Amino acid sequence: MRVYLAGPEVFLPDALEIAAAKKRICAAHGLEGVFPFDTPPQAPPAERPYWMRIYLGNEAHIRSCGGLIANLTPFRGPSADAGTVFELGFMRALGRPVMGYSNAAAAFLDRSRDFLGAEARPREDGGWEDAEAMGLEDFGLADNLMIDGGIAAAGGAFERTEAAAGRRWHDLQAFERCCARLAALVGKAG
């Protein structure tokens, strides 16, 4: 099965090395990893703006894959990368299996409170809110309930680990667990 490898690693200076490592792990589990930098199965029109060609290429990759594994490690804030979340939702809407992982083990509420600092304040009902009196989500989940819920509804798993300092984007233990679970899920369906 071809598996789309969604995540913000595309922004790393060593993105191609990370892609190669993920593809090796996929292959060890009988999967074929597809990274956003790979040549898309359908070339986007050259006259489109560069950013749109990236989008169309990634959409073509997603449509060509039977499943997706998303790196949902918090990116530039307490939550996952918005583009990665879009890709996960797109694959989920296609009715294909999705898995997610995060190299930050803390619950979404704890990360949100840490991110907001003094702007996070307790409510009288025992919950938490931000400076605009908007409640902070508190379900003990890894991220927003729509992310965790979409993965669970697809029969997938959201693997969490706490990466060692400086290894947040390079620790592939939780990713490998996702590969094993996806391979087992696909094996059951086949």
UniProtKB/TrEMBL annotation:
<dbReference type="Pfam" id="PF05014">
    <property type="entry name" value="Nuc_deoxyrib_tr"/>
</dbReference>
<dbReference type="InterPro" id="IPR007710">
    <property type="entry name" value="Nucleoside_deoxyribTrfase"/>
</dbReference>
<protein>
    <submittedName>
        <fullName>Nucleoside 2-deoxyribosyltransferase</fullName>
    </submittedName>
</protein>
